[in-house]
Design a protein that fits this description.
With 86 residues, this protein is mostly helical. The chain has one domain. It is built from 2 helices and no strands. It is rod-shaped, with a radius of gyration of 18 Å.
Length: 86
């Protein structure tokens, strides 16, 4: 997605922020599954859940980074649209 306006960049930032929130929920869920599997001594299930949780944790981090980047772009574009130096 290419945002060419401040509003478009802000919408993209919001979209990434929503992805980060969804990733956080998935991370929490799989982390809980790993703990539950460990408590039941299901080592292969626990290992799988930890691996999936790690994936979601990494995706959450990338999503936060992208949301912040697009928010910065939106701010700069807003200044340009107003005719102010960025």
């Amino acid at each position: 997605m290419t945002a060419t306006t401040a509003a478009g960049a802000a919408a993209t930032a919001l979209s990434w922020a929503h992805r980060a929130e969804a990733a956080e929920r998935q991370f929490d869920e799989y982390r809980k599954r790993a703990r539950d599997s460990e408590a039941r001594r299901r080592n292969s299930d626990a290992a799988h859940a930890r691996s999936v949780a790690e994936h979601w944790e990494q995706f959450r981090g990338r999503s936060v980074d992208m949301a912040n980047m697009w928010a910065s772009v939106a701010g700069a574009l807003h200044l340009v649209e107003k005719g102010e130096p960025s």
